Amino acid sequence: MKRAGILNRHLSGALAELGHGDGVLVCDAGMPIPDGPRVVDLAFRAGVPSFAEVLDGLLTELVVEGATAATEVREANPAASALLDGSFPELDLVSHEKLKELSAHARLVVRTGEAQPYANVLLRCGVFF
Q1: Which residue, of 11, 24, 45, 93, is most buried by count of CB atoms within 10 Å of its CB?
Q2: For 38, how many CA atoms within 13 A lie in the half-sphere containing its CB?
């Protein structure tokens, strides 16, 4: 049994399969999930686990070379906007519709229980060397 890090076996295994350039969508409970990507659904109740908790856990285990979020997060969800800005100094912003289109090409979708709007980010995996 793992001692630390991400303990969910489905998520831990999915992360181990990612490679350079792969996309990982971390999304709120309301984001439409496209057909195609592997999905690890962590949602338990509204707000549990939160977008912030899941993103923090993922960033401790992944090398991320880029991130894309919806422009709408700026006005609709200041807390998520601040979290994204603090985590990704060069955050790319696109319309929510465009983010949904880009999500169809993700390799993995991690659904949280977040119940605040536009708490979604598409991560682009990097390499550690």
Answers
A1: 24
A2: 15
Q: Please give the DSSP secondary-structure letter assigned to residue 99.
A: H
Distance between CA 63 and CA 122 in Å, rounded? 13
Mean pLDDT by 10 residues, the chain (129 residues): 91 98 98 95 98 98 98 98 97 98 97 98 97
Give yes or no: 105 in active site: no
50/37 Cα distance (integer angstroms): 21
Catalytic residue (one of 10, 20, 96, 105) = 20
DSSP conformation letters of 38-72 = EEEE---BTTBS-HHHHHHHHHHH--EEEEEEETT
The answer, yes or no, to whether the previous bond of 49 is cis (omega within 30 of 0) is: yes
Q: What local confidence, expressed as pLDDT, does residue 1 receive?
A: 78
Euclidean distance between CA atoms 14 and 117, whole angstroms: 26
